[in-house]
């Protein structure tokens, strides 16, 4: 149970205590699979996810996002994958890096621990920018660097006792006593540039208008709610943000706002076993008991006709994996074909990933017909290879080509094509140029 809070009847009805440890690991698997589809888009400039990407992620999140109409987890995951080196932007689309593809087969808790440590050091995003009601943040020399602030919040987590709830306001007090002060404004003068509603009347520079909970506290809530909770390090006790905190309402313009941030509803946190492992308090990860689902799910039946049936339903990550390698022929049925497997291989997917999943999730040993199909597709891999870019060198006439082809130095760096052409790998062009020049033929480039 969580600790007590003074809530009205409506807030008590909407209050939720959410254990995040297992859902975060399921969400990581789903996001890696979704990222592998190439359907997630982010801004090239800000690296933030598009509205369509947020919607697509929301659909695959385990137990959905924290709020129905407010993106927190769906916003955070693309940034976490980028900061962690698991995904990169290519023409506005998120694609898995080699590290990201490796993560598909690694224990999720190891990947999450690495993501948190990389997030603490990233320069991708200042979480304070997500508190949009506080204006003036983009002015020059106003905000301090985000990384030192974020690391102080991370330090605060390392002092928490696993399994013990603490109200966020009590956490604020402990952080201040420990000197963990994620200072937001660079100077007293910079405080005057931050404001609510109006830059003059609503300035936070006035005495009593920039208290610790308003600035440092809101930043701490953002890091904890949108990143620590999303990664499954802390369990959270929360309510809808509107009306959850009133510490800003004495500011000019504050009385017109229902909330100062989307994180205002965070009431208390509890470090869980995944958080203890990630923050270094525990050398090994011993997961807490996983809640039993209302209906069995996850197991599949692989039939000799190459159909895969998941009558009890599948986790989003598993469904996305089957979508990549098989054709969906029914509500919970997929069909493996030569074409579907080769299409997945051509898109860069690894057949070993599919085989591991089928063997682990199938109720029975894989039928011989299915293993034969997988083996045949695996044999075809590597029969036709892309060896990289080459330069096509053209000679004016066959005589020049024959002269060059007779040079022993050129035989090792070029392949003759027909009577007048050579194919030269990009990495061997300099050697070809030197050898051709030695024969009296400088290499002319097309301009």
Architecture blueprint of SSEs:
Layout: H1 9-14, E1 16-18, H2 21-36, H3 51-60, H4 73-83, E2 87-90, E3 93-96, H5 98-103, H6 108-120, H7 146-158, E4 165-167, H8 168-177, H9 188-191, H10 213-228, E5 234-238, E6 266-271, H11 273-278, E7 301-302, E8 307-309, H12 316-325, E9 327-330, E10 333-335, H13 338-346, H14 351-361, H15 368-380, E11 390-394, H16 398-405, H17 408-411, E12 415-417, E13 421-425, H18 429-438
Antiparallel strand pairs: 1-5, 2-3, 4-6, 5-6, 7-8, 8-10, 9-10, 11-13, 12-13
Could you describe the 3D structure shown?
- The protein has 447 residues and is of the alpha+beta class.
- It is 39% helix and 11% strand.
- The chain has helices spanning 9-14, 21-36, 51-60, 73-83, 98-103, 108-120, 146-158, 168-177, 188-191, 213-228, 273-278, 316-325, 338-346, 351-361, 368-380, 398-405, 408-411, 429-438; strands spanning 16-18, 87-90, 93-96, 165-167, 234-238, 266-271, 301-302, 307-309, 327-330, 333-335, 390-394, 415-417, 421-425.
- The strands form four sheets. The chain has a four-stranded antiparallel sheet with strand order 1-5-6-4.
- β7 and β8 form a beta hairpin.
- α2 (21-36) packs parallel to α12 (316-325) and α3 (51-60) crosses α4.
- The chain is globular, with a radius of gyration of 28 Å.
- The termini are far apart.
How is this structure best summarized?
The chain is of the alpha+beta class and 447 residues long. The protein has helices at residues 9-14, 21-36, 51-60, 73-83, 98-103, 108-120, 146-158, 168-177, 188-191, 213-228, 273-278, 316-325, 338-346, 351-361, 368-380, 398-405, 408-411, 429-438; strands at 16-18, 87-90, 93-96, 165-167, 234-238, 266-271, 301-302, 307-309, 327-330, 333-335, 390-394, 415-417, 421-425. Helix 2 (21-36) packs parallel to helix 12 and helix 3 (51-60) crosses helix 4 (73-83).
